[in-house]
């Protein structure tokens, strides 16, 4: 680009009247090495602008929001629900069994008790008979041996 | 806005956000923190983003407001911004030393501009926004953008010229 044109553009540039396209032309012009001395300040300015524009943000941007892990919470809730339902079910089943069998168990208990009662009565009977027999034996034994002594 | 859309439309703005934040906050660390914070906010509000006409302008406005708030908080805390990152610009070796000096000088000169002019220079000469967009971002008229820009450009040039002449004379 001709120097006179550049100088015109520079004047417009100073008054902030250049368009972005015209500023692009200036930028290109100042990127070359040979620049007249009276335009050196502009070269410095445009070099600085280029340099600044090239600067990049190099750190990472953490986009994962720090909200609680609903996924794991839901898994835990599901497990909890499963366990509680299972235990409740098995508990109530157990209750049903006892309810159903209670009468029968009571009956069996009664029958067993009666049976024991019977045995113990008979045993008692046998015991008293045996003891009476023993007594008799003792008496006769005493009688016999007393006389002998 | 879906995650994929966010990654394609909003995330590429990270460099512009970072550069603007750095222009205002000066320190690289603070600019990085600000960028992360701003993208966290954008991400949280990703469902509301589709209603903005220009996401780019919206992100710039958000960045500007956030950084100015940060600065205000700093100033009221009487804390001075400490910046140790006036790194030497990576100009190619062909440039002579004088130009190299001038380039880093531009950084200092922009830094010493009033806040609004600083923002205008950043948005126009570095990010190449149209006057209307800059007006929207800064909440001023496009004509005011032109005035501020012209002043900023002239100031930078004159200060550089002063420095050069000082070196010569």
TrEMBL record, chain A:
<protein>
    <submittedName>
        <fullName>Uncharacterized protein</fullName>
    </submittedName>
</protein>
UniProtKB/TrEMBL annotation, chain B:
<dbReference type="InterPro" id="IPR014284">
    <property type="entry name" value="RNA_pol_sigma-70_dom"/>
</dbReference>
<dbReference type="InterPro" id="IPR013324">
    <property type="entry name" value="RNA_pol_sigma_r3/r4-like"/>
</dbReference>
<dbReference type="InterPro" id="IPR013249">
    <property type="entry name" value="RNA_pol_sigma70_r4_t2"/>
</dbReference>
<feature type="domain" description="RNA polymerase sigma-70 region 2">
    <location>
        <begin position="14"/>
        <end position="75"/>
    </location>
</feature>
<keyword id="KW-0805">Transcription regulation</keyword>
<keyword id="KW-0238">DNA-binding</keyword>
<dbReference type="InterPro" id="IPR036388">
    <property type="entry name" value="WH-like_DNA-bd_sf"/>
</dbReference>
<feature type="domain" description="RNA polymerase sigma factor 70 region 4 type 2">
    <location>
        <begin position="106"/>
        <end position="155"/>
    </location>
</feature>
<dbReference type="InterPro" id="IPR013325">
    <property type="entry name" value="RNA_pol_sigma_r2"/>
</dbReference>
<keyword id="KW-0804">Transcription</keyword>
<keyword id="KW-0731">Sigma factor</keyword>
<comment type="similarity">
    <text>Belongs to the sigma-70 factor family. ECF subfamily.</text>
</comment>
<dbReference type="GO" id="GO:0016987">
    <property type="term" value="F:sigma factor activity"/>
</dbReference>
<protein>
    <submittedName>
        <fullName>RNA polymerase sigma factor</fullName>
    </submittedName>
</protein>
<dbReference type="GO" id="GO:0003677">
    <property type="term" value="F:DNA binding"/>
</dbReference>
<dbReference type="GO" id="GO:0006352">
    <property type="term" value="P:DNA-templated transcription initiation"/>
</dbReference>
<dbReference type="Pfam" id="PF04542">
    <property type="entry name" value="Sigma70_r2"/>
</dbReference>
<dbReference type="InterPro" id="IPR007627">
    <property type="entry name" value="RNA_pol_sigma70_r2"/>
</dbReference>
<dbReference type="InterPro" id="IPR039425">
    <property type="entry name" value="RNA_pol_sigma-70-like"/>
</dbReference>
<dbReference type="Pfam" id="PF08281">
    <property type="entry name" value="Sigma70_r4_2"/>
</dbReference>
């Amino acid at each position: 680009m001709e120097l006179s044109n550049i100088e015109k553009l520079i004047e417009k540039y100073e008054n902030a009247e250049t368009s972005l396209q015209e500023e692009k032309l200036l930028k290109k012009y100042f990127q070359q090495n040979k620049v007249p001395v009276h335009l050196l300040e502009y070269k410095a300015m445009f070099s600085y602008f280029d340099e600044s524009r090239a600067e990049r943000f190099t750190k990472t941007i953490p986009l994962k929001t720090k909200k609680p892990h609903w996924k794991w919470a839901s898994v835990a809730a599901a497990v909890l629900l499963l366990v509680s339902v299972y235990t409740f079910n098995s508990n109530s089943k157990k209750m049903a069994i006892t309810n159903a069998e209670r009468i029968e168990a009571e009956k069996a208990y009664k029958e067993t008790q009666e049976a024991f009662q019977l045995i113990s009565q008979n045993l008692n009977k046998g015991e008293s008979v045996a003891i009476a027999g023993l007594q008799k034996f003792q008496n006769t034994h005493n009688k016999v041996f007393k006389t002998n002594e | 806005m879906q995650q994929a859309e966010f990654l394609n439309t909003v995330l590429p703005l990270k460099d512009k956000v970072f550069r603007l934040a750095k222009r205002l906050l000066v320190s690289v660390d603070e600019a990085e923190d600000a960028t992360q914070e701003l993208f966290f906010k954008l991400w949280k509000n990703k469902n509301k983003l589709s209603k903005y006409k220009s996401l780019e302008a919206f992100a710039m406005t958000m960045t500007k407001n956030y950084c100015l708030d940060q600065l205000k908080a700093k100033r009221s805390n009487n804390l001075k911004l400490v910046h140790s990152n006036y790194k030497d610009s990576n100009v190619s070796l062909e440039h002579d030393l004088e130009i190299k000096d001038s380039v880093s000088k531009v950084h200092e000169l922009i830094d010493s501009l009033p806040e609004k002019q600083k923002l205008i220079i950043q948005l126009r000469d570095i990010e190449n926004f149209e006057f209307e967009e800059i007006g929207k971002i800064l909440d001023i008229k496009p004509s005011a953008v032109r005035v501020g820009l012209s002043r900023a450009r002239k100031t930078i040039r004159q200060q550089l010229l002063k420095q050069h002449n000082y070196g010569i004379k």
